[in-house]
Every structure is written in structure tokens, then in C-alpha cells.
Amino acid sequence: MIQCKTSKAIGGMGHSLKRKEDVRFIQGAGHYVDDIKLDGMLYMDIVRSPYAYAKIKNIDISEAMKVPGVAAVVTGKDLEKYNLHWMPTLMSDTQMVLPTDTVMYQAQEVAAVIATSRYAARDGREAVKVEYEPMKPIMDPYKSMDPSSPVLRTDKPGKSDNHIWHWEVGDKAKTDEVFKKAEVVVEQHMHIPRIHVASIETCGCVADYDKINNHLTMYMTTQAPHAIRTVIALVAGHVGLTEEKIRVVSPDIGGGFGGKVPVYPGYVIAIAVSFLTGKPVKWIEDRSENLQADSFARDYHITVEMAGTKAGKIQATRFKVLADHGYTDASANPSKFHTGLFSIGTGSYDYDTAFMEADAVYTNKPPGGVAYRCSFRVTEAVQAIERITDLFALKVGKDPAQLRMENFIKKEDFPWKSPTGWTYDSGDYHAGLKKAMEAIGYDSLRKEQAEKRAKGELMGIGISTFTEIVGAGPSKDFDILGIKMFDSAEIRVHPTGKAIARFGTKSQGQGHETTYAQIIAEELGIPAENIHVEEGDTDTAPYGLGTYASRSTPTAGAAAAVAARKLRDKARKIAAYLLEVSEEDLEWEPGKFSVKGAPEKAKTIQEIVFAAYTNHPQGMEAGFEATHYYDPPNLTFPSGAYICVVDIDKETGQIKVRRFVAIDDCGHIINPMIVQGQVHGGLTQGIAPAMYEELIYDEDGNILNGTFMDYLVPTAVESPHWETGHVVTPSPHHPIGAKGVGESPTVGAPPAIANAIMDALSPYGIHHIDIPITPFKVWKALKEKGVI
Amino acid sequence: MNAKINKTIKLDHPVDAVWELISDPYKVVSCVPGASLTSQESENDYKGQVEFKLGPVKSKFDGKVTFLSKDPNLKKMALKGTGLDSKGKGSAEMSMDAEVKAGTTGTEVSLNMDVSITGMLAQFGSRLINDVSSQLLDQFADNLKAKLSGGEVDTSIHTGSIVGSVVKGLFGGKS
Which of A238, A438, A734, B112 is 20 to 30 Å apart from A9, CA to CA? Predict the structure, then answer.
């Protein structure tokens, strides 16, 4: 299906090249932040609050200081002297680094113990005595909105409630009008629970401040090293750490999924301690700290409504969201987008009326809202629209596949303007769903289901046909802390025709070292194996906003293609000079320029590059290097058609995913094997919130599943056999027609699974269960309906 | 995290003897595993300590016990205990109603406890709290019997073994 323009030896787009980075990963030779050991390095451990909300009456460090090896205990009062006890969040809210008087969530950082070994630091942590005066926390966002609730953020002058912001988009009056007149209206309230990215590697850093040269090297687990450098300069500039004196290095990362975008207090404390002591300081979270204190996503309470005709034509949708942000708004959204790209939630369907509104509130939970493998709240939006579409189909008595087919935007209608203002670039939704239905054998499954239902057995088929929105983003709308969301590539080709390419993004397992090399190989004809890709060092890489939200291929991948094309233009000039013909007489094929009509007269890219250093035309700049900062004209809109089949044991509620077919449209594919790997991983992270994962807090603010013993991450055992496939509608505005794929499966899978389970239960009048849909919830619902 | 525990303890001793023990703060607290009263603050307020171990987490609570009501005629009492972990790892709150009455044979003490725990204990112990509390109450009942019979009271906390015996109980082993 995939046509390659380059030979296997060049290894451009479409070749399933083995991942270059795996040579070190599979030999245990990856280099992660915890592998960094520097002379005289100190270790930091963090005292955390057992309470969700409490006054700190006293911190007694005397016993801790007696522990052999403990050098210092740092409290908020210590940092306050340097005005480093608080920091801004990426959403321009504020967050404590260490508290001076009040803790706002369980597991919050209270003090840091610095010692000569990790063990001594942990012993010291146990010896710190903190006297608290516990207060009643607010854990329910609806209660938090109640005017009678106490104000949590008393640190904010003039704050008289717990409301953070209100956001809305769409045409309210028109939407209300359509709803009023509609023949059919369906409504559903749902909670998309708080979950955790649960990457294999937790967060950590080594802060290395060189007092003599006034220079900080910060090795840290970050998906966005350049943005972090700027943030550090903004936070610490006043103590002399200005941006040219800061180098951020992001070594190999063991999974990020959005959790390694924000700045966490641990990083800042490590920097502060290194700055004050002049020694390197290492901080590495343990598993429970990671699971309890940071990297949270979701936590949206959504009421979604759909209006349409009795014949099943969708006419309008309406969304009302309550967003629980915890103690502070520490999301990592583009600044103008409070709810991220939630407004993609109108879906893949052709209608022109929608209204969405959202309110965010503070509660006594840890700061939440990272974009977990998702372009900023797209997962929440897709869950809402795909669930309500099924409920609408049920109400009008139509098969959910047929209803979708009848309402899809047609492929000839792209570019298509959505009711919330987006311009979908391309897609062929009918082809995707048709392919998925054929692959899974939809019609025979429905027959089988009818037979099983007659026997009282529970079998369900669920569909999700989602539209994604990725590649943030065009500079006119997209920025983080004012920095526009372009991304960059710099290609240097050496005299012998081999290259190094550097990027503003940062792979956390996505395979950039391979795919970026393939893009450049495609454009320049230099074999991918001869292109070394490097990311993550702000001293060498061009500035970029990092890797999250499936933005690397749409932005930095595009930058690579454009920079390579600049070099190809230069190559053409050099070839014309060497072959003594005019540029127009030359023909390009991957790897060489030849003279039209005389193919034996040719110069390979390697010969041309060599000439750029040894025999370049007079008047032309020597060398063979190019840089490009790519500012995308639009976002890209990948899509997918997923179908899931489940069997449910009536007596126990046990759910078995029998089959799962995922047909993705991510535009042109760079490396099919890597895309398949991304889809497999993403689907597994999609089954996670659908059936297993949810962080549970009790009313006192205790997290009840703060370890991997209780927080259920799906493993190979829980994962079904994934069946994948593609439809390709290239993005018309992207230089190589690619759209990005990393997050599609995570976004698309949960509603397919939820819809399948609800389809199985629907004969008994059970039409909605909030995710994660566990055997217990299914059993309980069946029990309540008297089925068992 | 909250746990509600209702339990009836059956004793062979006369109602009055049981009431006399149950309503005497020092005597009754000496039957609670790991607990001791250290001082009396006012007529109904006492200071004390409770040591407690749940799986990997050992806690020592410094707390306060208040007798909210004590009715010798109805033989009913209510008390409330609050405690903060001495290392700042969490807090616990317990309110308890107790009633002593004659049963079909001997005397029955019915206890209604409402325990709320915050912090590390709540995190690690959420699934075990009911079972562990129930075991502690069994030990408390044994101690009451021992005390009434003039025998030795076992106030040690069978720490490791509490969780161990709960787990064994769950999986059908010998407890």
C-alpha cells in the first residue's frame, strides 16, 4: 500500500527501518538522568505532606541533621529569603516550590533533605518532624464551586472563590434554538477521571551549578528542554542566572506522555540547593512520589447533549464542563486555550451548530491537567462526542455504524470548517469506517450478537470514529508563556556526505533518531543510516517547544523537510556549476542530479556536498548547512475508525476484549513499523482509562491507590491482540503530508471500548457507566437492574 | 478514609462488673492493644498514646481521649479520641459508643466505632483497615475477659502478625 520513492539503501519515507536508538536501548546502554554521576554530587529527598490541607505549625530538623551524611534540610522559609519559594505555572498561575505555612494537597513537597548519599537523604527525611494542624479539604469540584465553600487560594490577593476561569466557544443562541426545536435530544453526564501517565521512568534531575563560572547545567527529565531553560531564566534571573548561563540537557527519557512537560518543585529546589552550595544535586522521585504528586491528567466532569432529527441527522451539540485542576492550574496548554483543544469535540460529523463552555476550579488535589498522550483535552472531548453519538443512535433506533456513515463529513467537503472554528485539513471517514467494518466482519458480528442475546449472553460491539487535532501550532494562536509554538531543525552535512541533524523537540521513546533521518533521507537522498539525529541539549539544538501533543512530526518533521529542501536548492546550484549546465536542465531523483536527456551526466549528493567544501562556485557561501523554524499554517487532523468487540461474563461482570481493529489516518507514513508500535502502545494506554485506571481520593484527600499495587496499569496480559490498518489522506498543508499519530490510539480507544461494553449491556436498559468500566461496576449495574 | 465497625463482645461476667471496667478510663484503655493513658487533663479529658502498625507503616499517635457521656443507669457511654502521628505522617480520629447489657447468657458489650484515618496509614491500609480493626477488637475483647478474670492483659501490639493473620484469613490459611 505504501509507495516508497527512495531505495531501501537510502531508507526514506515508507521504509520500515529498524530503530537506530534501539541498538543502545536493547543492550541496556541508554543514558538516563539517574545514570549521571558527578564528582561531589549531593542527593536530595523530599519530605511530603500526609495531609491534603493543613497549616504547618513547626518543622523540626534537629534530629534529621544528626543523621550521618545529612548536609542540610531546606524549607520554604529558607527559599523565601531568595524569593524562590514559589514559581509560575505554564498557565500563568502560581505554585509553591516549598510551603511557608500551608500545604494544599497530600504528597505536597514540605522540605528537602540534602545528603551525601541517597540512603542518608532518605533516613534524614524520616527524621524530619513536621507539626501540622489539619483542615478539612475540598475534594469535590462541585462543592468547591459552591459560594459557601471556603476559599482555598488565600495566597492570591482578593480571591473570593475557588473559580479559576470560564471559557466558551460556539454560538450559544443558535445552539439553544436548535435544541429547542429538535425532534430528538439526548443528554449524558460523565466523569473522565483523573489518571496518571505512569511512565516507566519517574521524574528527576541533576542540577550542576558552577560557582566560578556562574553557569548552571541542568540534566533533567523534560520533554521541552528549551522552554524549561527560558522558564528557569524567568524564575532565577533575579539571582543572576540569566539564560545564556543556563544549559538544559534532556538525556534519554523512559516515557513522558505529557508528564514531563511541567516544571515540578523538585527541579527548582535542586537548582536552588546547587546554586547555594556550588555542588551538583541529584533528585530522583520514587514510584509512589511520582504517582502521588505529579504528572496527572484528565479530571473533567462533562455534560454533553446532542440534538437531531428522528431520522438520525445530527443537528447540534452542547457541552458543559467542570474542570478539576487541583491546587493550581498547572496544565501545559497553549496559553490562549484554557481547555486545550477540547473544541475538537464536535467530532467527525457534518453539522454547523455547537456551543461549549467550561469552568475550572481549585480543589485540594495535586496540580493536574497534563496533556497525557493527547493534544490538550482531546481525549476528554472525543470520549464525550463518541459516547453521545452512540446514545443518539440508540434513541433514534439506528445501528451506530450506519448513523455515523450518514453523518460523516464527506471527503470532498475538506477543508471543512467546524462549528467551533477549526478548519479540518483532510480526511476520508467513510473509507476508514468501511475498512474497519470489513476487517472485523461487522455484519456477521451483529448476527452473532443477536443469537447470543437470544440466549441471554452479553456481547457488545463498540465504534469510535474520531477526529484528532495535533501539531500545535500556528503562531497566530499558539504560544506557551508567549513563546510561539513553532519547531526547528538544523542540518549540517559534513564534507564526506554524512550529516548531523538537530531538533528543538525531544524523543521519549517515539523513535525520532530514525524517523527524522528518514525525512531528511527522503528529501536529500543521503542514506538515513548516515544521518545522526540529536536532540535535548539546549547548547547545541536549535530552539523549539519540545515533544508532546503529537507535534513533533507536524512541526519539527516539517522543519526537517523544509531545511533539507533548502539544501537541495543549494545542491542544484552546485550541480549545475559542476556539470556546466543551467539549473533548469537538471533533474532530481533521490540521491543525485542528472542532466535532462543525458542521465549519464550526473552528480551524486555526496559529490555535490564535497564540492560545497572543496570547490564551491565563486560568490556562493561555502558549506552545506541549513536551519528552519517551521511555523505551521494550520493544525493537522488525523482520524481513526476503531471497532471493539467485548464479551462479558454475566455472573462476575468480567469483561474480555475479544477483538480490536484500529484503522488510522495519519497522512503519509514515515516508518510503518514505528507507526504500528506507536499505535500498539497508544491502544494499550487507551484500554487503561477505559477499564482499569483511576486515581481515587477519599473525602479527607487521601489517595487510596498511590502505588502500582493498587493503581492498575494494563500489561501485556490485559492487552488484546491489536489489529491495525491505515487509510491515507495526506495533509495538504504539511510539507510531507504527514499528520502525526502518537496520540490517536490513546484518544480513540476508550470510547470504542466503552461503547462496546454499553452495547453489551443495553438490552437491560443500562446505557451509561463512567470509565473505568470495571467488572464491579458492570456487576453492580446488572444487579440493580435485577438481571442477576 | 473512614471505617465503621460494629461489634458485640460476649462476656461471662456480670453486667455491673463489666460496666465498672468499661467505664473506668485507665482500666479500659489498658485493654486496648498498644494504648496507654499518660495524664488526666480535666474531668473527662485524658492524654495518651497509641502505637499502631499496619503493614510497612508504624505509627505512634499522641492523642487525646474525651468521654462525651457516661450513663451508669443505662450503662451507655460515648467517647472520642483524636491523635496526631508523632512524626507528622498522619492523623486518626475515632468515636465510639458502647453499651453494656445482659444477654441471653452472660453480658453483651456492643460497640459502634467510627474510625477516620489520614495520611500514610490511609494510603497503605485502605483495604485492610476493616479487617485489622476487627482483629484489634478481638484482642481487646480477650483483654477484657482476662482483666475480668484477674488474668494477665496482653497489651503488646502483635504488629507484624496483624496483617499476616488478616492475609492468612483471606486466603484460608491458619490464623
Answer: A734
Query: CB distance B120–A700 less than 8 Å?
Result: no
Contacts of B87 in chain A (CB under 8 A): 126, 129
Are residues A573 and A506 in contact, defined by beta-carbon separation less than 8 angstroms? no
Q: Considering only CA atoms, which of A166, A188, A431, A168 is closest in space to residue A305? A: A188
A653 in Cβ contact with A713 (< 8 Å)? no
SS3 A565: helix
The predicted structure's pLDDT at residue B174:
41
The torsion angle over the Cα atoms of residues A194, A197, A198 and A201, rounded to 10 degrees, is -150
ipTM beyond cut 0.85:
no
User: pLDDT by residue (tens digit) across A648-669?
Assistant: 999 999 999 999 999 999 999 9
A739, burial (CB in 10 Å: exposed 0-12, middle 13-18, buried 19+): buried
Among candidate residues A374, A510, A568, A607, the one labeled active-site is A374
CA distance A368 to A328: 8
Cβ atoms of residues A542 and A489 within 8 Å: yes
Angle at A241 between CA A240 and CA A244, to 5 degrees: 120
Which of 290-319 (A) contact B at CB < 8 A? 292
N-to-C CA span, chain B: 26
pTM for the full predicted model: 0.92
Structure confidence by residue, pLDDT tens digits, A110-162: 999 999 999 999 999 999 999 999 999 999 999 999 999 999 999 999 999 99
Q: What is the distance between the alpha carbons of residues A115 and A72, in angstroms, rounded to a whole number?
A: 7
Task: Identify which of A231, A235, A220 has the alpha carbon closest to the alpha carbon of residue A280.
Answer: A220
Residue A648, all three cell numbers:
462479558
Counting one residue from chain A and one from chain B, the pairs whose CB atoms sit within 8 A come to 56
What are the structural domains of chain A?
A: 22-30+487-630 (3.30.365.10), 33-136+203-284 (3.90.1170.50), 296-472+634-784 (3.30.365.10)
Cβ distance of B90 and A126 shorter than 8 Å: no
